[in-house]
Amino acid sequence: MSSALMANYGHPELQFEHGQGVYLYTADQQRYLDFTAGIAVNCLGHCHPHLVKAIREQSERLWHTSNLFSNIPTERLAQRLVDLSFADRVFFANSGTEAVECGFKMMRRYHYHHGRKQRVRIISLTQSFHGRTLAPIAACLNPLHTEGFLVGDSGFDQVPFGDLQALRAAITEQTAGVILEPVQGEGGIRAVAVDYLKAVRQLCDEHGILLMFDEVQSGMGRTGHLFAHEALGVTPDLLASAKGLGGGFPIGACLSIEKVAEVMTAGTHGSTFGGNPLATAVGNAVMDYISDPAFLQTVQQRSARLRAGLDVLIQQYPTVLAEHTGLGLMVGLRCTCSNADLIKAFMQVKLLAVKAGGNSIRLLPPLNISESEIDEALALIKAACDSLS
Q1: ∠343-348-349 over CA atoms, to 5°?
Q2: Beta bridge partners of 156
Q3: Are 42 and 58 members of one domain?
Q4: Which of 50, 48, 44, 89 is nearest to 244 (CA)?
Q5: Does residue 1 form part of some domain?
Q6: Which terminus of the chain is more solvent-facing, meaning fewer CB atoms within 10 Å of its CB: N or C?
Q7: Same domain for 209 and 341?
Q8: What pairs with residue 91 in β-bridges?
Q9: Residue 361: enclosing H or E segment and its boundaries?
Q10: What is the chain's alpha carbon radius of gyration, rounded to the nearest angstrom?
Q11: Residues contacting 5, CB < 8 A, separation 6+
């Protein structure tokens, strides 16, 4: 069947009619165990009743007014994020890439405001992913994303992942800041080493430049902490959040410390839809769960169960699986076979997962997954490995 959609996503054949919890269903009621969670978005699974209730109630009250006016759900969500994080201020957008763009603008504006107009360049790491708009693709320099779109370097420098000497050498009088993912997502679920992260923080402080974390994928409880950097013991100046923040409803947020946020005066940045009451009402419903320390502890326990099961399978199927990586329920499964072949084998047994760099697969289940559902996933992974070995 032909589609009126552009072909930039290829032509996916699998189509789902509805979802419930950790499962997706086709029109003929074929059930799939969903370990994509909308690429780490559906943090409480599909159609969670608390989120459904929140969006229904808000939809009957107020959808959108623009930022010409204040609204209660948005003020409340901003305050909750501030109370639970390093941040003093929040800007709401509609997506992760918009949250990153906001951070880039704030880095440059911060130095401009203090008379350092030459400080416009931003350093990123190889194999990073920060979104698909022009500034984020310039930061990541992935030729698959930049070809035909990027002219010049747009003020970004890139250094090898984990190479502190290269980062130190890249800092100049033009550097405004550094952006990195505490746990790389698209790059293959690679957690940054704690010693490296601490050294980057120190370098930024020494040179008077800003440190921004992209926690679009690793944040919102995904690692068993509200944000992954909390487990690593390093605090940024800026942070981009999205994905799980809306539990499936589009929302992004750029979090900032006061000394950086204060340069964003009236008119310096904006978003028509960003921070609308419908999105932030759902965000508040998500926060009702993931702000609970007991819930985050359960995420860590479920992660331990999943990873213990993967350890067994890695031992049993060395020609298919090499190792698991990442933190919490942000799980990378590095393959010894082709990751594309394993994704297909997963689909054959009705398990859904996400491809990543480094010949890896991402396992990103809902954070409220049960022990029995984890055991079901491990049985399906075993069946897929059997078919390939």
Answers
A1: 100
A2: 122
A3: no
A4: 44
A5: no
A6: N
A7: no
A8: 254
A9: strand 360-363
A10: 21
A11: none
Query: How far is 64 from 49, CA to CA, in rounded Å?
Result: 23
Single out the residue in 268, 290, 312 at which a domain terminates.
290
Element (H, E) at 210: strand 210-214
Cβ neighbors of 218 (< 8 A, separation 6 or more) are 181, 182, 183, 185, 227, 228, 327, 330
**Domain of residue 277, CATH code:** 3.40.640.10
Q: Are 283 and 313 in a shared domain? A: no
Does residue 384 sit in helix, strand or coil?
A: helix
pTM for the full predicted model: 0.96
- The one-digit pLDDT tens for each residue of the chain (389 residues) are 678 999 998 888 899 999 999 999 999 999 999 999 999 999 999 999 999 999 999 999 999 999 999 999 999 999 999 999 999 999 999 999 999 999 999 999 999 999 999 999 999 999 999 999 999 999 998 888 989 988 888 999 999 999 999 999 999 999 999 999 999 999 999 999 999 999 999 999 999 999 999 999 999 999 999 999 999 999 999 999 999 999 999 999 999 999 999 999 999 999 999 999 999 999 999 999 999 999 999 999 999 999 999 999 999 999 999 999 999 999 999 999 999 999 999 999 999 999 999 999 999 999 999 999 999 999 999 999 999 98
Give exposure, 333-362, as e/b (b: 16+ Cβ within 10 Å). Answer: bbbbbebeebbebbeebbbbbbebbbbbbb
Phi, psi of 121 (to 5 degrees): -90, 145
Same domain, 129 and 271: yes
Q: Which amino acid is at 226?
A: L
**Is the same domain home to 15 and 88?**
no
Of 290, 311, 343, the domain-final residue: 290
Range of the domain at 196: 50-290
Kindly state whether residues 93 and 216 are assigned to the same domain: yes
Domain count, the chain: 2
Same domain, 365 and 225: no
- Nearest of 13, 33, 7 to residue 21 by alpha carbon: 33
79 and 190 inside one domain: yes
Round to the nearest angstrom and report the end-to-end CA distance of the chain: 35
